[in-house]
């Protein structure tokens, strides 16, 4: 991707996992409603950093002008977020970003969807067994959304908006159903979290592949190559060339590295 890439929500956790590792790889434009301090811009100049809300049509149009791709992360990430917030930040904001991307002639958008778009597949009958390495239950991205909560509804809506702009405006869209991003170790003492762990380096690599690969419309799961898993990463490997390096099985249940003599 030679053209500039707009990263919305750049100041947040996922944005920082990406930008801290890929700062030198792209001509970034950053957008966040909070000013991003210099140390979190990782060398991206302040002139390429937009302080704006993703529901602001004019501001988003300004930020995306001339870009070839967008990684759209900005939104309310709370699983218990109230409807008013997800309606504005996640649904309206995502429609604004897709629409502005089309108007600007952007080639591709990677959208941060969530495990919570499909959380209701985790039924009482299937859990906790489905979180374990010896269980072969898998979701692969072909299934219909079954949201856990209204936040999950907003993410399923974002996926559908992506489908709409792909079908009607020829925008290439990949929706990444991100699992649970934590830095340095998987979520501690949390089976579900360890089954959907996404390490920071695998996160950066996955979104790098979203910018480099060719696709039309895709839904993929964004998790590391955990032994425990109920999300297939085969589609991400096949279509995007995703090659994850991390695995929550390399850590104890408490989140300590197993190759650390202190924990053996
Ligand atoms: N962290 C995780 O494990 C997961 C995150 N995601 C999704 O990834 C995206 C990023 O999540 P995180 O980095 O964890 O959240 P975060 O809260 O750390 O970062 C979100 C960023 O977006 C900005 N933002 C929020 N609403 C905005 C708006 N209306 N306009 C402009 N900027 C706005 C915030 O200021 C913040 O810097 C979210 O869409 C979230 O739903 C999905 C699954 C898992
Ligand atoms: O979508 C998201 O999912 C992760 C994992 O969900 P959890 O309910 O197991 O914590 C969550 O940590 C993150 O904040 C959210 O945006």
Automatic annotation (TrEMBL):
Its EC number is 1.1.1.388. Residues 255-264 have a biased composition (Basic and acidic residues). It catalyses: D-glucose 6-phosphate + NAD(+) = 6-phospho-D-glucono-1,5-lactone + NADH + H(+). InterPro entries: Epimerase_deHydtase (IPR001509), Glc6PDH_archaea (IPR032884), NAD(P)-bd_dom_sf (IPR036291). CDD domains: SDR_e. Pathway: Carbohydrate degradation; pentose phosphate pathway. GO terms for biological process: glucose metabolic process; pentose-phosphate shunt, oxidative branch. It is an enzyme of class 1 (oxidoreductase). The keyword Oxidoreductase applies. Residues 244-264 are annotated as: Disordered. Keywords: Carbohydrate metabolism, Glucose metabolism, NAD, Oxidoreductase. NAD(+) binds at residues 89, 114, 151, 155. It comes from the Archaea. GO terms for molecular function: glucose-6-phosphate dehydrogenase activity; NAD+ binding. It holds the Pfam family Epimerase. The active site is at 151 (proton acceptor). Residues 5-181 form the NAD-dependent epimerase/dehydratase domain. Belongs to the NAD(P)-dependent epimerase/dehydratase family. PANTHER family: 4-EPIMERASE, PUTATIVE (AFU_ORTHOLOGUE AFUA_7G00360)-RELATED (PTHR43103:SF5), NUCLEOSIDE-DIPHOSPHATE-SUGAR EPIMERASE (PTHR43103). Homodimer. Catalyzes the NAD-dependent oxidation of glucose 6-phosphate to 6-phosphogluconolactone. This is NAD-dependent glucose-6-phosphate dehydrogenase. It comes from Halolamina salifodinae. The lineage of its organism: Archaea, Methanobacteriati, Methanobacteriota, Stenosarchaea group, Halobacteria.
